[in-house]
Amino acid sequence: MPGENLSRDEARERAALLSVDGYDVSLDVRSAIGDAAGGGNGPAAGGGSGEPRTFRSVTTIRFRCNEPGASSFADLIAPSVTAVSLNGRDLDPGEVFDGARIRLDDLAAENELVVDARCAYSRTGEGLHRFVDPEDGEVYLYTQYEPADARRVFANFEQPDLKAPFRFEVRAPEEWVVWGNGAGERADGVWRFAETKPISTYITCVVAGPYHYVTDSYTRELGDGTTLEIPLGAMCRKGLAPHFDADDVFLVTKQGLDFFHDHFDYPYPFGKYDQAFVPEYNLGAMENPGLVTFREEYVFRGKVTQASYEARANVILHEMAHMWFGDLVTMEWWDDLWLKESFADFMGSFSLVGATRFTDGWITFANRRKAWAYRADQLPSTHPVTADIRDLQDAKLNFDGITYAKGASVLKQLVAYVGQDAFLEGARRYFKRHAYGNTRLGDLLSVLGETSGRDMAGWARSWLQTAGVNSLTPQVLLTAEGRIDELAVLQEAAESHPELRPHRVAVGLYRRAGDGRLVRYARAEADVEGPRTLVPELAGAQAPELVLVNDEDLTYCKIRFDETSLAALRESLGDLSDPLARALCWSALWNMTRDALLPARDFVDLVLRFAGRETDIGVLQMLHAWAESALTHYAAPDWRPAGERLLAEGALAELRSAEPGSEHQLAWARFLASVASGPADLDLLQQLLEGSAKVDGLEVDQELRWAFLGPLAAHGRADEGVLAAELARDDTASGKRHQVRCLAARPSAEVKAQAWAQLVESDALSNALVEATIAGFQQPSQRELLVPYAQKYFAVIGRIWEQRSIQIAMHLVKGLFPALLDSPETLAATDAWLAAHESAPPALRRLVLEARDDLARGLRGQACDAAGGPDGSGDSDGSDNY
Questions:
Q1: Distance set, CA 816 to CA 70, 124, 424, 784, 821 (Å)
Q2: pLDDT value at position 223?
Q3: pLDDT at residue 50 in the model
Q4: Distance between CA atoms of residues 188 and 209, nearest Å
Q5: Integer Cα distance of 144 and 261 in angstroms
Q6: pLDDT in tens, 414-465
Q7: Which residues sit opposite 438 in a β-bridge?
Q8: Confidence of residue 51 (pLDDT cuts 50, 70, 90)
Q9: Residues 523-533 as b or e (16 or more Cβ within 10 Å = b)
Q10: Rounded distance, CA 857 to CA 845, Å?
């Protein structure tokens, strides 16, 4: 659509020309439930006409122009515009509106724009999303805008640096409640909300419907003698109310507010604090000030492990950190997205450990979040933390592992570099200096330079303005007496990104203690610079069995091992006593597998031998995911059947030996379901579903029933009738998603053809059902059934990108890539498409390039696995430094 993809240059030009004094937005969403009075559900509202269901949106924008007589534009994506008025002049919508922009000519010094439009409810999670609950027929609405979908709901200047106060009013069905960023009340049938502070368009928010709503409050005495009172609210669909543990949500919320007030010295500035758990959400959550939205999967319908509660708490705190990093102070353009996301990701773990019961949060960060960063930083699309964002499509794709997890890892390194006190004092000055404004990289660096006295420009060049991940390897020389003569840290970089960075690291030395555990007996911190750095503090120490070069996870790097250390891990990984050190070693071994330095079957063997002794449940669940990925993508094809049997046997043995009723037992049950393929495994799942078999302490609740039905459907053990009966048992939105996934997983050419048609040839599925269908369509056990779709994929992705919303297009382009057809032929087909489509949209090419890189990496891993090691000798212990 012309003008829909706003460029950075256009945004800068408009920001230089305009400043916004305020918005008044009036929405009428009575059409959401049908022929409500005044709402309309006839052709204009999409009632039975094949047109999208719409709502009325009237926006008044007051803004100034510093060059009277100049021209600019407002943003709006809507099926139709009824009227446009600029400074009292009626404009012809047919002349000034092109479907994405409203042309504004002959601007005055002070202007008032009024736009009356019919905007479309969304089924893709972009804009104003409309969800009908299959359980009770109730309709729920919520908005989601990042990075630029507020224009799907009201006319605006859709860029982060044109901040303004907003006043919303909403007409909704009589029985509904409506929430906004500010406090609201209903009078004369209209919900009116308090004017916001100056904020960006993408963090305005409306939630409306018959939500289940719970309240609480937070009180804090401030240093000036005043009392801060924050009304708290939490909501979910009525159907989820029996499962909603709002007390725990409020507990973490209050702990977070205490933590950030203690450390930021800037009171929460946005009044109330509501948190809405909403259906069919594309993201984990969104930091709308005063009204944070979350995916409703954080309301747990069945038994989950503490890792799930920890993840939810982390997200709650991540979004809370955004109230300061992102909402109070906002990046000028999406180049500096890291100024909000990297900080929120770091602060999520920092506050999780400092304020809540989840004191092992840094283990999860090292094991899970950094794995995301390492993968992203080795893709051909990797970019500096401060990225080059040319337009909104670039921005959409840069909500990635670099911006979030690598950025957070870099900030963890920064805290080690400048010290925690200097870091937090820099943050405090940053908030006070730039409150309600917009910033760039230099604004933050300047305050950190003030508080730390460090060279922030040099640090930023190395860590924020270059891409790629370094590898750190220990080099140990021993004396004849068996003590360390010299210990050095070797640093390497990829040829494509040769920057060698300064690293503040802790080097830990480990040996076996009398009780058989591997324990640390010596430690030293060092500033690693260049290709080789000596650590003289460790000279003279007793010879180690294991050297861990990034002990305590201070820096962002790939850890490698010397020959002795790798041998110790192969023999005794389960004996490593410190859980963080153990998590770091697991992460390093997984990186070696992905880098074709460790055969996939060796990694699987390590999981089978030592995962059962893993005490951290989050690490255990990550190991399950990695083992499954190793088998699917990195194991030699002829070994996969043996690997499947080994994993299933190991999972069943651990399931039976786990403490009855424990979260470890639940994790092993879910892992068994994910790897089950043989008749005996499937028989057991069937019997557990029917109740004819039991595992002592294992409760097969509804969510676990669906987990067992997935492999049964994929292997032809659960047909359409069985799945329909299960949906009747669980006739909910969650049940429908599970059923759709299982239906698409059935091993039939007809099933695959139907799923493909639903995804590619129709746009009837909501975003949530698109994801569920893709998940069912792609089954590792059904590679032969997927062969016809490799050629079809490359034939349709251009059309998909052109015709579908960017969110759905991203789901389809990523999710339907023929990754399971992992052969040189698929790699060649991908290369052929890239060569023939050099002028395709850069964002589309990026997705295909990333999928191609994953495929090529998998093929290298398979070659390593088939050969038995990286040198092809069949001996993966070799003499290389891994």
A1: 46, 18, 44, 15, 11
A2: 82
A3: 52
A4: 18
A5: 27
A6: 998 889 999 999 999 999 999 999 999 899 999 999 999 988 988 899 999 9
A7: 330
A8: low
A9: bbebebeeeeb
A10: 18
Per residue in 747-772, pLDDT (tens digit) is: 999 999 999 999 999 999 999 999 99
The residue written with tokens 């979030």 in the block is: 404
**pLDDT of 740 over the 60 cut:** yes
- Give me the mean pLDDT over the 669-673 stretch: 98
Count how many residues are written for the chain. Answer: 882
Cα(772)–Cα(741) distance, rounded to whole angstroms? 5
Asked if 381 and 828 touch (Cβ cutoff 8 Å), the reply is no
* Assigned token pair, 581: 């050190």
Which phi and psi angles does 748 have, rounded to 5°?
A: -145, 140
Rg, the chain, Cα only: 28
Cα 644 to chain centroid distance, Å, stands at 29
- Give the phi and the psi of residue 428 in degrees, each rounded to 5: -60, -45
What are the tens digits of pLDDT across the range 230-276?
999 999 999 999 999 999 999 999 999 999 999 999 999 999 999 99
Burial class (CB in 10 A: 0-12, 13-18, 19+), 733: buried
User: Looking at the DSSP assignment, which residues form a beta bridge with residue 220?
Assistant: 228
pLDDT at 266: 96
- The alpha carbon dihedral of 870, 871, 877, 882 has a sign of negative
pLDDT at 796: 98
879 — pLDDT class (breaks 50, 70, 90): very low
Active-site residue identified among 158, 319, 425, 771: 319
Q: Tokens at residue 328, please?
A: 């109070």
What percent of the chain is predicted at pLDDT more than 70? 96
- Decide if 319 is catalytic: yes
Question: pLDDT at residue 177 above 60?
Answer: yes
The pLDDT value given to residue 512: 95
Q: How far apart are CA 49 and CA 382, in angstroms?
A: 45
* Sheet of 484-492, strand order: 532-534, 484-492, 471-478, 558-559
How far is the C-alpha of 154 from the C-alpha of 212, rounded, in Å? Answer: 27
Q: Name the residue among 145, 162, 179 with its Cα closest to residue 27.
A: 179
Q: Which residues pair with 221 in a beta bridge?
A: 227
Cα–Cα–Cα angle for 85, 188, 182, rounded to 5 degrees: 70
Beta carbons within 10 angstroms of residue 713's beta carbon: 27
Q: What are the b/e assignments for 294-318, b being 16+ CB within 10 Å?
A: bbbbbbebbebbebbbbbbbbbbbb
Q: What is the pLDDT of residue 3?
A: 61
651-688 exposure pattern, b = at least 16 Cβ within 10 A, e = fewer = bbebbeebeeeebbbbbbbbbbbbbbbeeebbebbbeb
Angle at the Cα of 671 (from 666 to 675), degrees rounded to 5?
Answer: 155
* Band (141; pLDDT cuts 50, 70, 90): very high
Euclidean distance between the first and the last CA atom of the chain, given in angstroms as a whole number: 50
Axis crossing angle, helix 788-803 with helix 824-836, rounded to the nearest 10: 30
CA torsion angle for 795, 797, 802, 806 (degrees, to 10)? 170
Q: 727: which DSSP letter?
A: H
